Each structure stands twice: as C-alpha cells, then as structure tokens.
Amino acid sequence: MRRLNKYVRLAGAGFLLASVTLAQSTDPAMNPFFQPNETSFYYGSGDVNGDGSIDVDDYSAMEAGVQNDMSDIDGNGTPSTANDLSILNQYLQGSIEYLPGHWNYLQAQSEREYWLESMLAIDATSELPYQTGVFISGDYRTVTEMNFAGRINPNDPNIPYNQDIINFARFNLPVYGVSVIDPNSSWGHGMDAILKGENPLSWDDWSFVEPQNDDINVQPGGWNIPHGTLLGIDVLGGFQENGNRINIAIVAFQIDENGIPSLYPLVGTYPNPGLILERPAVSVDDEVEHPLSFILIQNYPNPFNPSTTIHYDIPTESLVQLAVYDVRGRQIKTLVSEEKPAGSYAVLWDGSDDSGAQVSTGVYFARLQVGNYSCTIKMVYLP
User: Fold this and answer.
1) Do 129 and 185 belong to one domain?
2) How far apart are CA 66 and CA 85, in angstroms?
3) Which residue(s) pair with 46 in the sheet?
4) Cα separation values, 160 from 24, 55, 144, 238, 383, Å
5) 305 with 263, same domain?
6) Boundary-marking domain end, from 273, 304, 339
7) Using one digit for the tens of pLDDT, what is the confidence trace for 265-276?
8) What is the value of pTM for the model shown?
9) Same-domain status, 157 and 267
10) Do 148 and 222 sit in the same domain of this protein?
11) Fewer CB atoms near the end CB (10 Å): N or C, the chain?
12) Residue 138 and residue 198 in one domain
C-alpha cells in the first residue's frame, strides 16, 4: 500500500491537496490493473516538463507551447491543444479525479478500451515493415508489449527480466502477450491482450488485440483465434542470449469446436499463483481551498484560431458576467451570465457571436464583471 500526496499552487486559486491511496502489487507483471512502471514519462501523463510530478508548472509549459508525448492529454495525437490544456486545468483544480492516460484510475471498461485504441492509433505496430519468413506475428506481439508495457531494458534486450532495471514504455499500459495454439497441428499465432474488466479469469474481461492490423476485441472464429485452440496470456520477461523470449505465464483459455471459450487451468502454470485477481483499492480525495481573490487570466492560445480558453477565479458565490466585445465596444458574445459558486473556471470561446456566426479577423476583448470587480483582457483572432 502506498499513499501519494501532491500540493499544487494555482494562479489566484489557493492550494489543491490531492491524496491518492492505492495498493500496488510487489510484482507489476502479476498486476494487470496498474500501469507497469513507476514513472511519469509516458504518453498523456501530464508531466509536460518531465520533473516527475504533475502540477502548475506543467500547465505553464503547455501554455508556452511545449509539445511532447506527455502533453497530449486527450490522446488524439496532437500535443498541447486547447483541449489538452483544459483537461489538465480541470485535473489540477480537482474537478476531475484523473487524466485519461492514468490507467490506474480508469474505472469503466469503456475508458480503458478507449485509451488503448487511442494509443494503438498513435503507435500502430502495423507500420513496421513486414518481412516474409523473418518478421512474424510473434514479433508484432513483442513490439507491442515493449512499446506499451516495457518490461525490459531498451538498451540491452538480451537479458532476463529484472525488477531493478528501470523499465521503459512509451504508453505504460499493462499489455500482455497472447499465444494461440492448435494442439493438433503446429499452427500458432501471436497476439496481445489487456484487461479491460475486473476479473482476469473471465474471458469477457479481456480485450484481445491483433497487432498486425490493430484490431481490438478479436473473437474466436477467424484466423486470429480459430475454433479448437488454446489461448495463453503471458508477460514478456526478457530475452535469452540466443534471442528466445522469456515468458511469464498468466492465464489460459480453451476455445472449443463451437467457438465457446472457457478457463483452461493447468496446475502450477495457469492461472499463475501470483496473479492479482482483485483490483486493488484506489481512492482519490481532493481538498480544494477556494481562490483567494477575483482574477481573470489571459486566454490561451492567444492569438488563436479556431478557439481559445479563458480562465477566471471567484473567491465567493457570485453573479458572474463574462462577455466578448469588439474594438468598438459592442458586446458580441455572452459567455457566462449566471450565479457561480466559489471556484476556478475555464470557458471556451469558439470565435462565434451570439447568433452563431463566425467573427472576422481582428482584436477582441473579454470582460469579467463580478459585483464591483471588473477586468478586461485583449484577444487576437487570426484567420
């Protein structure tokens, strides 16, 4: 069991204390519920400046336009967009408990599957050149495991798995290898899998991946998983000197002649006695102090096209008026006009007026009016 605390100082917004308590298996290879490596250097982590923590410095780095794997918060393949900035802001303010890439905290099967699909689209193993008789399905499987779950030293792959090695994985997801075998012939096929549900011993809780064409949820019946086969899920432990894989058995399923899967228990091998069968408890408790003062923060990006985000803080429940004006002082867009509880807010302006028409290129002003407080920022809309 470990407990993580982070203190985040936000501009004009007081302090956020986020306490995360989670149970972690001593051997991450046996825990299919958690990101395998103790690192924040992975895709969509939010650690934009790479200092090992996710805080307001990362927000500032993203505002400054830093683009790397960690700054693609929404996993759409484009780092440091307005949406990435907005999601990170919500996380830092405590309005959302986790970022999309924080696999440890993803609660629903759809969340986990969505993130896997996003990462496969970004780093498609099928882009690797296929070499007949040389690069086969098992190689695709291995590449996917290494890209997603690491497990071995990338500088020296010809060594067995070692817990003391600093593991590397671009996506840091608990992806496993899959071997499909026909016991009546020499046919075999390599695939991958990830646990999307809560029970590693249940077929329906696994999401199967065909890495050669990035299909997800491959089911029995095709050439990937024919009827009358055995399907074993294992972890890549490393490589021997001769290049052969070192596998750690996890769990296996039998596919009958009708394509119906069932657990295939093999004493001492499947299921692995060290396999974590219940998702460890995870709790996230946020305590957010109210902002210390009224503040309107400069929009980002600025200049912008097609949209920009405006941030503001209010220390008490108030009637908030936030509107956009042109250079002649005419109000063209009402963004907020309602009572708001104390807190920090982000508002997206898409460059349209109150009628929905797109505004012309030029300079505009956003004005925040809360009681006696008033503040204006200058915004530039580019074609």
Assistant:
1) yes
2) 11
3) none
4) 23, 36, 18, 4, 56
5) no
6) 273
7) 988 889 999 999
8) 0.67
9) yes
10) yes
11) C
12) yes
- Domain range for 237: 121-273
Sheet holding 229-239, edge to edge: 215-216, 206-210, 188-195, 176-181, 229-239, 245-255, 261-263
Average pLDDT, stretch 199-209?
A: 95
Q: How far is CA 198 from the centre of its chain?
A: 18
Q: What is the pLDDT of residues 212-267, one digit of tens each?
A: 888 899 999 988 999 999 999 998 877 776 667 778 899 999 999 999 999 999 88
Dihedrals phi, psi of 70, to nearest 5 degrees:
-70, -20
Q: Does residue 360 lie within any of the structural domains?
A: yes
**pLDDT, tens digit (0-9, with 9 covering 90-100), for 40-59:** 889 999 999 988 889 888 99
The answer, yes or no, to whether the previous bond of 303 is cis (omega within 30 of 0) is yes
Rg for the chain, CA atoms, rounded: 25
Question: For the residues of 176-217, what is the DSSP string, one character each?
Answer: EEEEEE-TTSS-EEEEEEEE-SS-TT-GGGEEEEETTTTEES
Total domains in the chain come to 2
Are 347 and 374 in the same domain? Answer: yes
Q: E-strand spans in the chain?
A: 2-9, 15-22, 176-181, 188-195, 206-210, 215-216, 229-239, 245-255, 261-263, 282-288, 295-300, 308-314, 318-325, 331-340, 343-349, 362-370, 373-381
In a domain, 287, yes or no: no
Structural domain contains residue 369: yes
Residue 356 lies in a domain: yes
Greater model confidence, 80 or 30:
80
Written as one letter, the residue type at 42 is Y
Backbone angles phi, psi at 61, to 5 degrees: -65, -40
Buried b (16+ CB within 10 A) or exposed e, 66-82: bebbbbbbbbeeebbbb
pLDDT at 361 exceeding the cut of 70: yes
Give me the residue label for tokens 């958690």: 34
Examine residue 226 and say whether the peptide bond preceding it is cis (omega within 30 degrees of 0): no
- 352 touches 305 (CB < 8 A): no
CA distance 215 to 83: 27
Residue 240 in tokens: 């021997």
